[in-house]
Amino acid sequence: MPDAGSCLCKTNDTVVLSNGDQCALGQFVVVQPRGSLDLIYMAQVEEILQVKGTPNELTQLADGILVQLVSTSQHSDAYSMPRTILTDGWGLLHDIMCTVNVQCNCNDNLCDTSGIRYVYQERVRTDHTLPTVAHRHPSDLILNTAQMRDAAHVQHFRINLPIPDIEEVLTGSVAREVDARRSSTAQKALSSLKNAGLGRHSQNATSLGTVQAS
Questions:
Q1: Phi, psi (deg, nearest 5) at residue 17
Q2: Which of 30, 48, 68, 106 could form a disulfide with 97 if both were Cys (CB 3.0 to 4.6 A apart)?
Q3: 143 with 42: CB under 8 angstroms?
């Protein structure tokens, strides 16, 4: 490697990870330090560095990836998923496990569909618009722990939900089913009575019409 004093680096916009993910600047990722089997944490990619004159430059590999560490100690009650909060910690890595999907914490920030998006036809913008979500605080993000890709890594950040009482769940389900059947039976009986009443009324009206006609 060239001397550190005369080392020239160039930055890149994306890097392909060992699992095949294409990772771009600003992407949230899962990181595991080399030699550690238990320590897994999240980070956000800030710089992708490549040292000029090294073998990695010839093979288009990154010499280092600068990341900002992310805390997942807080979570959203509405989504039961961890929030991604940037910390003051930084790290220079050589590899990343995988990229992850993050979403805006819309429920807590009361995001709505007051935004608009113009519709393009044949690359020409029209006056027609469609509503879009207006994010109040785009930096308030949650980790989508429901993603299937790389679930083996993402599951480390999942929030353990309380296990419901099986007997209570079964009792409640049976009670709702009984109530639903009773309601259905009552509605059918009421409908039958109404139909019977209408039938008698129609029959009386016919008889009355016959008497008047005679």
A1: -80, 170
A2: 30
A3: yes
Alpha-carbon span 169 to 175, nearest angstrom:
10
The residue assigned the tokens 């890709």 is: 149
| pLDDT, tens only, 175-212 | 999 888 888 887 887 887 777 665 555 555 555 455 55
End-to-end CA distance of the chain: 119
Statement: the pTM of the whole predicted model exceeds 0.85: no
Reduce the DSSP state of residue 120 to 3 states and report it. strand
Task: Encode pLDDT of 129-179 as tens digits.
Answer: 999 999 999 999 999 999 888 888 999 899 887 777 788 888 889 899 988
Position 80, amino acid: S
Tokens standing for 48? 């992708």
Q: Which of 31, 33, 9 is nearest to 21 (CA)?
A: 31
Is the sign of the CA dihedral 55, 60, 66, 67 positive or negative?
negative
